[in-house]
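Lecture notes, part 5. Sequence design as translation. It can be helpful to think of inverse folding as translation between two languages: the language of shapes and the language of residues. The source text, in structure tokens, appears below.
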């Protein structure tokens, strides 16, 4: 029972796999921005009584493995994380202008949706290794955008000629 969290009246182990996707799946997250987002998410989780066990980013999404106490509403934590991470990355003096290249105007950083799953059906090591493998080149090639309609960095916004 060493892996369990304890409070005065409760012993628990509640973990969630959470994914946020950038608005319009734009490739906004560089390695530096990703490291910043993970460190800020870690700080925010601790402030809400939880813990970010692991986090990893790709160019257009972030995976997090979060442990929360049973008295904390998961959806509230998700809302706070999305709002605060968006505000902090937009307000950052170095990353704010970088993000503005991809998300014009006052566009939110994250899409309105999110993925949340409990991790009870698989081992923690399986989820951790999956999340930590997100930055590998092999993983990135699997999900590379190949459509002529994808407007990534350096691609013209003009419609293809017919």
């Amino acid at each position: 029972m060493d892996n369990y969290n304890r409070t005065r009246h409760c012993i628990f182990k509640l973990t969630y796999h959470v994914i946020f996707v950038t608005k319009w799946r734009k490739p906004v997250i560089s390695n530096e921005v990703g490291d910043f987002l993970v460190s800020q998410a870690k700080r925010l989780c601790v402030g809400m009584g939880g813990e970010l066990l692991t986090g990893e980013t790709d160019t257009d999404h972030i995976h997090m493995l979060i442990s929360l106490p049973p008295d904390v509403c998961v959806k509230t934590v998700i809302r706070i994380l999305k709002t605060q991470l968006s505000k902090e990355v937009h307000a950052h003096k170095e990353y704010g202008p970088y993000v503005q290249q991809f998300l014009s105007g006052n566009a939110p950083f994250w899409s309105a949706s999110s993925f949340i799953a409990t991790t009870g059906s698989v081992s923690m090591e399986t989820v951790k290794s999956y999340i930590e493998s997100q930055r590998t080149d092999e993983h990135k090639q699997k999900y590379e955008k190949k459509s002529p309609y994808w407007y990534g960095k350096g691609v013209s916004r003009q419609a293809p000629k017919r």
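The translated text above is only one of many valid answers, since several sequences can fold into similar shapes. The CA atoms of residues 130 and 153 lie 27 Å apart.
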